[in-house]
Amino acid sequence: MKDIYQFAIDFEQENQKFYRECAANAGDGRLAKVFNRLADEEKKHEEIIRNLAESGEIDKVESDIVSDARETFQELSSDFDTDEGVMPRDQLSIYKKALSLEEKSHNYYSEKAKETDNEKIKETFNRLAVEEKKHQNIMHNLVTMVERPKTWLEDAEWYHHQDY
Question: Quick check: 66 and 38 in contact, CB under 8 A?
């Protein structure tokens, strides 16, 4: 059975690869930027976990990805044709898969934080769960932007997307 660290590292590597592929197939440089940033975040999480496993040290986890994604999505929304929709729907299943991956990541870190008595693991995994929740919210916004552009435009301030 894989240990808690190796499982998390594998998960982060899988997510990195997925987001790099999404970026390569995005078709829009702004969306590619969001996906590459998500991949960078997953790489950072991998490094945090490796450091924790090897040295027991806790690295800074928090990021400002939400504000970056919000700006990019608002740029994209300026191109919206509200009568016809906005974003190509052909990538929707990929965005939903990303949302699912982020939900799994969040749940994994939350569960493992509850299961451990090691305070460093608990603290790091709780902080990683918060970061994965940010990613989950970004992907939720992207899915909403594709599925219901008018709703997304009405909620352009991202009231449903909190900074943590």
Answer: no
Looking at this protein, which amino acid is placed at residue 144? T
- Please, is 53 exposed, middle or buried when counting C-beta atoms within 10 Å of its C-beta (0-12, 13-18, 19+)? middle
pLDDT digits (tens, 9 = 90+) for 116-137: 999 999 999 999 999 999 999 9
Residue 89: DSSP 8-state: G
Cα distance between residue 2 and residue 18, in whole Å: 22
* The model's pTM: 0.81
- DSSP letters spanning 2-56: --HHHHHHHHHHHHHHHHHHHHHT-SSHHHHHHHHHHHHHHHHHHHHHHHHHHH-
In order of their start, the domains of the chain are 4-154 (1.20.1260.10)
74 within 8 A of 156, measured Cβ to Cβ = yes
CA distances from 85 to 36, 77, 123 (A): 25, 10, 42
Q: DSSP assignment, residue 141?
A: H
